[in-house]
Amino acid sequence: MLLPRLAALGVPVTVRDAETTHAFSMSYDGDTRLMEVDAVGDPWSPDDIGAALGRVGALHVAPLAQSDFPPETLAELARGRRLSLDGQGLVRPPRTGPLELSADYDPAVLEHVSILKLAEEEALALVPDLDKASLASFGVPEVVVTFGLHGSLVLADGRVRRIDVRPLHDVDPTGAGDAFSAAYLAARSEGHAPVAAARRASALVYGLLAGRLR
Question: Is residue 97 part of a domain?
Answer without folding.
Answer: yes
